[in-house]
Design a protein that fits this description.
29% helix, FAD-dependent tricarballylate dehydrogenase TcuA, Flavocytochrome C3, Chain A, domain 1, FAD, FAD/NAD(P)-binding domain, alpha+beta, oxidoreductase activity, CobZ
Length: 470
């Protein structure tokens, strides 16, 4: 029997396993994926949003707690637990030293259109390098890792963890357990159930692309919900971004994201705009566009730019459709040419001339146009023109287990004495809706370490009681 059983193999699970081992506990980590696909969605991440009151190595200027909190409050629309959110925010000021200790290296962040040089610390080599570093550190510390081990259920008694049970019936007993097995974003049937049908009789989830791992089926999450665990979050809410419609069904990751939305216009398949493309900086708004596209007919949109925008955004992996006129572009992407020309003409006429600057919230906006474009509104008048077809890309879901700052799983508001949760399985406590770049890793790192520490202490206190009784 191990002191701590950790279920999952991503950032939160690894932080929990390493921390529990540092506390002196024996640790078994169970990863559903094979070794080559280990790491869950964390392998596709790039950075961590960090609070800091002054410049810190790769972070410039300052990003104080209150500004971080206001950014989070804005994107969630108030659907967040302020106490837990601030706990996460404060932990990001100091966690990078711990991360470095376990092999994670940081690089100066990208500048320009991403606007994250001040707020986010980038991993050298991306999420894959982070995952590999953590696995090396965990195994060097003596954490036992088992791959291709899918857990179908837990043996629980009055809210207490007894054992994890694999699909093949194998029991993995432990004195405590950390659940960090991700959400249900790869489970198409559950997504269909969560999103339902729209007014046209379509099932929007059928057109979703899964940006990350195919292994997050939500089996353990569903089991816990069926056990009557305290839950939080709307099953239809998720980190949902607009990705290239040509992206693979799974594991396309960051390179399939389309980052030129704020520099042009976005239309649906009726060639009509449907939202303010320039509402705010892209890292604060990119995660709303998947949901916006999901609500459009046939769950598709088209990001349209002209040649003035080329070089001002992260180029996607696939080239856009190119044309020398708006009408030719419409014909190439199968939109009604007359309506498309009208949409572009009305947008161009509504643009108020200002000082364009894609690195600040500039004064280029539209007037007497609905929906408005608040910033970076410049006429689409310089060929060639480009189009990128968009689909909703699900990263992770927000339905999860309700927690307090001890990361303990709760039943009727009573904390389990030895069962804890971290990562996507509880992110909905902080993210009721919306997203801002890097905060998912902030939540996973913070609560992974809390869960690991408390799981270890629970297990070791049980051992001490047993030894004292002998």
């Amino acid at each position: 029997m191990y002191d701590v059983v950790v279920i999952g193999g991503g950032n939160a699970a690894l932080c929990a396993a390493i921390t529990a081992r540092e506390e002196g506990a024996s640790v078994l980590l169970l990863e559903a994926a094979p070794k080559e696909w280990r790491g869950g969605n964390s392998q596709h991440t790039r950075n961590l949003r960090c609070m800091h009151n002054q410049p810190q190595d790769v972070l410039i200027d300052a990003y104080p707690e209150e500004e971080y909190w206001q950014d989070l409050l804005k994107v969630t629309g108030g659907k967040t637990n302020e106490h837990l959110a601030r706990l996460v925010i404060r932990s990001t000021e100091t966690c990078r030293e711990w991360m470095k200790k376990h092999g994670v290296n940081f690089q100066p962040p990208l500048s320009g259109a991403l606007h994250v040089a001040r707020t986010n610390a980038f991993f050298m080599g991306g999420g894959k390098a982070l995952v590999n570093a953590y696995f090396r550190s965990a195994q060097n510390l003596g954490v036992v890792v088992k791959y291709e081990t899918k857990i179908k259920e837990l043996d629980l008694k009055d809210g207490k963890f007894i054992a994890a049970i694999g699909e093949d019936g194998t029991r993995y007993e432990g004195k405590s357990c950390v659940l960090a097995a991700g959400g249900f974003e790869s489970n198409r049937e559950w997504l269909r159930e969560a999103w339902g049908q729209n007014e046209s009789g379509e099932w929007p989830a059928d057109n979703f692309i899964i940006r990350g791992t195919r292994f997050n089926q939500g089996n353990l999450l569903k089991f816990m919900l069926d056990q009557g665990v305290d839950a939080i979050g709307d099953p239809s809410q998720s980190h949902c971004v607009a990705v290239d419609a040509r992206a693979p069904l799974y594991d396309g990751g960051i390179c399939t994201r389309i980052d030129c939305v704020s520099l042009g216009i976005v239309v649906n398949n009726q060639a009509k705009r449907f939202y303010d493309e320039g509402e705010d900086f892209w890292p604060k708004r990119y995660a709303i566009w998947g949901r916006l596209v999901a609500k459009q007919p046939q769950q598709i949109g088209y990001s349209i730019i002209d040649s003035k925008s080329v070089g001002r955004f992260m180029p996607p992996v696939f080239e856009g459709v190119k044309a020398n006129s708006i009408r030719e572009l419409a014909e190439k992407i199968n939109l009604d040419p007359d309506q498309f020309e009208q949409t572009v003409r009305e947008f161009n006429q509504a643009c108020v001339k200002g000082e364009f600057n894609h690195t600040v919230l500039d004064n280029c906006h539209t007037e007497n146009l609905s929906p408005a474009k608040t910033h970076w509104a410049v006429p689409l008048d310089t060929p060639p023109f480009y189009s990128y077809a968009l689909r909703p890309g699900i990263t992770f879901t927000y339905l999860g287990l309700k927690v307090e700052d001890d990361a303990a799983v709760r039943f009727n508001n009573i904390p389990s004495p030895n069962l804890y949760v971290a990562g996507e399985m509880m992110a909905g406590n902080v993210l009721g809706q919306g997203y801002t770049a890097g905060v998912g890793m902030s939540i996973g790192t913070t609560f992974g370490r809390i869960a690991g520490k408390n799981a270890a202490r629970s297990a070791l206190s049980q051992s001490a009681l047993i030894q004292g009784a002998m």
